User: Which sequence fits this backbone?
């Protein structure tokens, strides 16, 4: 095979590729049975050719290609069909039809001379014809040496073609040239619009957010972004990158409405127009049989109207999913209800976009993928992961030689991994990330109430060839629609400078977001019907409530400040860990500690609202008139927060093992808000401090065991070292998921006891979940402790965390015992050591006894206490959270009038003035400090703020 390239100036650059395919096997003759040899040779030749042409060998930068010349093959032969399959148009056949010919042999006409244009050039061709100056050679004029003229030597006849034809340059070939008319246009960058989202793991909020997302999406799809006067934009994709559903309330309600779990989730994605989706981890949470049943149609249920993709999962060993696998690289619309590594989406103008999927390699440790193979074997080997994905990208491009744009749907759990892949992969232009819930926004995007900025949209990285790659991600649960509109150059590389923040970015799907994009009335009626049906099932459970809270229970995933359960202690993490501990003690009174993972908490309990003219606030669950009182924690809330409903198990660990287990829980964490680790521990019955700046494995500095009163009963680690016998043991309750190796934990199974029996029991006040599960434990704990008095433990930022003390944000106070009150009147007494006393609401009496004690006030509702034994010089009154709640930002609250003092005999009343020296408020008595005079108490050294 010979090939050469010519670039002509016409007035613009067009690439003419002249290809001669003369080197086919010599034995291609009738009866020689060489068909497969020839086909293989053709495939091999064109594979080399397409690889070469994709390199832009003339460096023209032009994407218009024309293949011309004698290809030594007729129109219906393999070489021409191979070119047509690659997206090239046979111009001679298109314009000449059945009468086209450029060659005559033995009285038979056909054409071996071809002109084939790729899609971008074909539209610029005005006409094609053959110039018939050579080919017309009827058989009567053949050179027949059997005829001997008079006087001619029959053994050596003269070569005298002039007797038949004129001898001139036109007769130098037996082929006719092909004439091509071109009306060339100036090449324009290719513009692509990509709508994307991930982690649509529906919870209660999805009942409204999913329909509103459809309204926002429909409104955006109608916008005339190319200013051609026609609504909409043809070159548009709608893609998702995993976690289409998650076990829980929303997921489970589909069983009653649609006959099987998760069907509502899938039908919502169908109606949003998803064209392809990557496998996330939550798809596998209930096993591969559920995955199969959700992908396949069944009766009125259509299954997935899109293919599921993953290049690093092997489905062949899994009997549930093996039969759903189809050939890679097919058109997406033709492989609904199927699984592949890759697919192609052909846009209306013929442009092809390649789509490849990839799934987190830690899948087996965080979900239940059955016999599905997961690669690479070492999930931390990003080079190996990139090589696997690269193989799928390369195969897809080789099978589609005219295609030069690829989108990777990567569900990696950590946005840093998608960014690392962008720097390792070739010929990938856009990566749609998934699993991290990272909220990327640009300067023109509005955040929903309570949300914070987590990164710039899009992130642009550089691949190994120096080409730009866009990495995009949006928050989960239908909260935002991601929209990326970018231009591509003629070689299929994105042009980052074409990004317009007025068009692209993350679009909020709250009510305001619908209005902002003109989406009123554009809600998809089928999606609304789906969520309304699910709402009916869910609301029936809302009236079944078990306890009360006056505060927002924080189950936010990640972020800054107060958030979230994968990065710091939260009040929901605390109360659910305590609930598990209380449940375990019913079986074994020797259980003293509780461990769970932050990733098992899926939602908060309460609401984030924005009162008119103010900032977002977090509030306790609202009243549902006639159904549930304000602050009530219902079955719905419990199921929504603890969607997995993990079972509980007991085990025994040594002091050394306990430190190692907790070190593992912290090993991958950093102080980066975007780094949210599902393994991050939430605990009960213990407290520890840690320094994330230190190497993994040596981060824990202090670790203590505490009783139910908050008293330290055992110091396990001090100054980073084990204290006492490293082999002394503690009975622990944890999630069966973690004990079985979930999230990568390795926990000894000494004297393991599973609290969920082989035959589930449903006893006690909460019978909606089996005994021995997280949901049941939490419901029973609420009923026993917070039905008559509400929970008051307001969530705090890392600066004030006491169980999980991050030393980048606060000092180490783990060795202090803690006493916490209730909403009623409490008498809290510390120990002779260092204590923390938090009275909360009610007229409490606080006595520290000996040591350096902290008396903590969280809000103004904690006032009217008596501190009986405040010791100047050693004890502190902690007002940090209280002053923060008043938006005080000064450095001297006494001088600024926020702290005032009133003498009462030999004692002092400590007052708080909510506006300092302002006139809008009067001082409120916070606490009576017994036997401490005003002149002594009036000193900043007595306070922390």
Assistant:
């Amino acid at each position: 095979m010979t090939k050469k390239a010519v670039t002509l100036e016409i007035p613009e650059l067009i690439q003419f590729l002249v290809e001669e395919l003369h080197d086919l096997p010599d034995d291609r003759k009738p009866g020689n049975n060489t068909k497969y040899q020839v086909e293989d040779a053709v495939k091999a030749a064109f594979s080399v050719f397409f690889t070469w042409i994709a390199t832009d060998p003339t460096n023209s930068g032009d994407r218009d290609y024309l293949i011309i010349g004698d290809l030594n093959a007729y129109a219906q032969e393999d070489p021409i069909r191979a070119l047509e399959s690659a997206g090239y148009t046979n111009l001679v056949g298109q314009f000449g039809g059945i009468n086209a010919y450029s060659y005559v042999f033995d009285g038979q006409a056909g054409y071996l001379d071809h002109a084939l244009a790729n899609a971008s050039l074909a539209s610029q061709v005005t006409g094609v014809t053959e110039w018939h100056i050579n080919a017309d050679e009827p058989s009567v004029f053949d050179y027949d040496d059997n005829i001997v003229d008079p006087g001619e030597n029959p053994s050596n006849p003269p070569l005298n073609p002039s007797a038949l034809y004129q001898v001139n340059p036109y007769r130098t070939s037996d082929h006719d040239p092909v004439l091509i008319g071109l009306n060339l246009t100036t090449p324009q960058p290719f513009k692509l619009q990509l709508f994307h989202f991930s982690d649509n793991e529906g919870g209660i909020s999805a009942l409204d957010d999913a329909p509103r997302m459809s309204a926002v999406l429909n409104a955006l799809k109608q916008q005339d972004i190319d200013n051609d006067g026609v609504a909409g934009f043809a070159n548009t994709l709608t893609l998702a990158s995993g976690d289409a559903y998650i076990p829980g309330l929303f997921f489970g309600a589909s069983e009653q409405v649609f006959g099987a779990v998760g069907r509502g989730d899938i039908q919502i994605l169908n109606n949003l127009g998803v064209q392809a989706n990557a496998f996330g981890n939550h798809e596998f949470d209930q096993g591969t049989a559920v995955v199969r049943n959700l992908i396949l149609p069944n009766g009125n249920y259509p299954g997935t109207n899109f293919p599921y993709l993953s290049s690093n999962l092997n489905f062949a060993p899994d009997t549930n999913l093996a039969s759903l696998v189809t050939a890679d690289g097919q058109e997406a619309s033709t492989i609904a209800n199927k699984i592949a590594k890759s697919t192609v989406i052909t846009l209306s103008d013929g442009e092809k976009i390649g789509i490849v999927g990839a799934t987190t390699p830690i899948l087996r440790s965080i979900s239940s993928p059955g016999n599905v193979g997961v690669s690479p074997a070492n999930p931390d080997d990003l080079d190996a992961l990139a090589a696997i994905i690269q193989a799928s990208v390369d195969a897809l491009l080789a099978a589609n030689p005219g295609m030069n744009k690829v989108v990777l749907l990567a569900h990696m759990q950590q946005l840093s991994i998608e960014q690392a892949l962008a720097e390792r992969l070739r010929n990938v232009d856009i990566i749609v990330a998934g699993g991290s819930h990272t909220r990327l926004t640009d300067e023109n995007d509005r955040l929903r109430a309570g949300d914070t900025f987590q990164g710039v949209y899009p992130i642009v990285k550089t691949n190994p060839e120096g080409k730009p790659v866009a990495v995009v991600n949006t928050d989960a649960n239908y909260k935002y629609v991601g929209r990326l509109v970018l231009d591509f150059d003629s070689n299929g590389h994105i042009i980052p400078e074409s990004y317009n923040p007025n068009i692209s970015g993350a679009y909020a799907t709250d009510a305001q977001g619908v209005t902002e994009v003109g989406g009123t009335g554009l809600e998809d009626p089928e999606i609304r019907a789906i969520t309304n049906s699910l709402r009916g099932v869910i609301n029936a459970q809302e009236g079944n409530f078990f306890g009360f809270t006056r505060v927002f229970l924080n189950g936010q995933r990640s972020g800054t400040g107060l958030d979230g359960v994968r990065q710091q202690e939260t009040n929901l993490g605390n109360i659910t860990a305590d609930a598990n501990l209380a449940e375990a003690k019913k079986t074994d009174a020797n259980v003293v500690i509780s461990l769970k993972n932050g990733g098992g908490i899926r939602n908060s309990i309460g609401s984030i609202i924005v009162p008119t003219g103010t900032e977002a606030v977090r509030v306790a669950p609202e009243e549902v008139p006639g159904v549930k009182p304000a602050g009530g924690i219902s079955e719905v809330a419990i199921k929504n927060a603890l969607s997995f409903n993990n079972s509980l198990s007991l085990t025994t660990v040594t002091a050394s093992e306990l430190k190692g287990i907790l070190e593992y829980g912290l090993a991958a964490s950093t102080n980066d808000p975007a780094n949210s680790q599902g393994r991050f521990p939430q605990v009960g019955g213990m407290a520890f401090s840690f320094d994330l700046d230190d190497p993994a494995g040596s981060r824990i500095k202090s670790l203590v065991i505490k009783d139910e009163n908050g008293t330290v009963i055992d110091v396990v680690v001090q100054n980073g070292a084990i204290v006492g016998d490293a082999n002394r043991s503690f009975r622990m309750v944890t999630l069966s998921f973690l004990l079985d190796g979930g999230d990568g934990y390795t926990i000894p199974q000494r004297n393991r006891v599973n609290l969920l029996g082989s035959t589930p029991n449903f006893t006690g006040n909460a019978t909606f979940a089996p005994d021995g599960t997280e949901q049941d434990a939490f419901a029973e704990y609420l009923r026993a402790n917070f039905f008559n008095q509400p929970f008051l433990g307001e969530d705090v930022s890392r600066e004030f965390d006491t169980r999980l003390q991050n030393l980048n944000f606060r000092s180490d106070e783990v060795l202090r015992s803690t006493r916490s009150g209730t909403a009623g009147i409490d008498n809290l007494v510390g120990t002779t050591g260092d204590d923390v006393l938090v009275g909360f609401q009610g007229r409490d009496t606080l006595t520290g006894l000996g040591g350096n004690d902290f008396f903590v006030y969280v809000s103004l509702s904690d006032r009217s206490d008596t501190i009986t034994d405040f010791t100047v010089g050693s004890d502190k009154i902690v007002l940090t959270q209280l002053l923060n709640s008043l938006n005080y930002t000064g450095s001297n609250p006494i001088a600024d009038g926020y702290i005032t003092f009133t003498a009462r005999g030999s004692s002092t009343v400590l007052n708080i003035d909510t506006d300092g020296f302002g006139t809008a408020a009067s001082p409120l008595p916070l606490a009576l400090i017994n036997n401490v005079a005003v002149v002594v108490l009036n000193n900043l050294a007595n306070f922390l703020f």
About this structure: The first strand starts at residue 2 and ends at 9. The chain is about 20% helix and 25% strand.
